[in-house]
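User: quick one, fold this
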Amino acid sequence: QVQIVESGGGLVQPGGPLTLTCVVYGLTDEYHAIAWFRQAPGKEREGLSCITGSTEKTRYADAIMDRLTISKNNARNIAYLRIDYLKPEDTGRYFCAAEIRFYGSQCYVDPVRFDYWGQGTQITVSA
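Assistant:
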């Protein structure tokens, strides 16, 4: 059984960086992809970035890609998302998700592809 736990959210001042952590328990092989999504109050869930398990190939959402860095510690099945230059509109709940039995060469930040989700971690950007 795969379980996901996110951490690292909090109250952050505008302009600052923040790194979120996603621990994925229960992965048994490298054939997976991990992604980050967020949901702002009153808005649809938005895909941010994904990374493949074996080759660590990444993909970013166009609108925010210049401020994001996704990375992964394969030995420990931990993924990270660094967000730079935080803005008030980045406020929302950030979710990590895992797609298992993934054999592609490139991941896609489409929520329907992901099988397991964490509960999310809240980021509030405010002065």
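User: anything notable?
Assistant: The mean pLDDT is 95.
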